[in-house]
What we know:
Elements: H1 2-11, E1 17-21, H2 26-39, E2 45-52, H3 59-73, E3 77-81, H4 92-105, E4 111-113, H5 118-130, H6 135-139, E5 144-145, E6 148-149, H7 157-166, H8 183-198, H9 202-227, E7 237-238, H10 240-243, H11 247-260, H12 268-280, E8 288-290, E9 294-299, E10 302-307
Parallel strand pairs: 1-2, 1-4, 2-3, 4-6
Antiparallel strand pairs: 5-6, 7-10, 8-9, 9-10
Helix pairs in contact: 1-2, 2-7, 5-8, 5-9, 9-11, 11-12
Amino acid sequence: MQAVAACFLRYTRPGQSVVVGFSGGLDSSALLHAAACQAKESAIELSALHVHHGLSTNADAWADACQRVCKQLEVPLEVLRVDVPITTGEGVEAAARNVRHQALAGHSADWILLAHHAGDQAETVLHNLLRGAGVRGAAAMPESRGRVLRPLLGLPRDALQAYAEFHRLAWVEDESNADCRYTRNFLRHKVFPLIASRFPKAGQQLAAAASRFSEVDSLLEDLASLDLRGSPPEFPMSLGLFRDLPDTRSRNLLRAMLTWHQVQPPDECRLNEFVRQLRTTGNDRHPRIDLARYSLWCKAGHLHFKRQD
């Protein structure tokens, strides 16, 4: 509750609206309860959004449970039914996460509250590093980005469970959370217990490292802004911007551009090779890279970008 109150004090103003991403699970149940307790004191207009993926046979029951909790807390709830595309090449886990984020991003509230905690942060750092992400991936999740706030990032999941049990909260259990075919569940149930047996503070150390990487990432974004040399951060962009910079700053500029356009850069190997082609290819060649959510290609001395529908 103190973490939520401090987050409201840092970012919100009286009279603003805040929506909680509410799955009905332990983490978001603890967050919603704490936010409901603090909303009146902070003069915040609080609501909740439950994204109904329909991927589980229990999905309707979860939505009903969320309705009961919100009615008890006197928090307005919107249940949004969505379709999760399974042919994007991202996998069901990533596709569902993207749809959920899009649903929250489309909400009209001034602020969006998510229930990620220190354990989620540590898992995200390790996951991103293992899949070849760079500094931004290692920075994982910030407390604040745009309208999104994550007030529980400094708390271990044990603290959330203790809070929920103390306040006798009810929550639902998603059976897919035990399915180790999903990467994050594999890390949570198989990898982290093994690491923690040798390094008991691994979770805290990874979360702390994420904070330091986040500072570095902010500095690299500042450098990319300078390297645009007054050009707007928009596509198409001149290939000359890349060719006039050292390799490392060319790669940093492309990473920043993709981040500013709200897509994830490719893994380091593919990004490095693509930037090498941008810097060295002749006008008769047209380097191209196609990913699940967007495409990049060269034409007429410019780098083009298109988001996939």
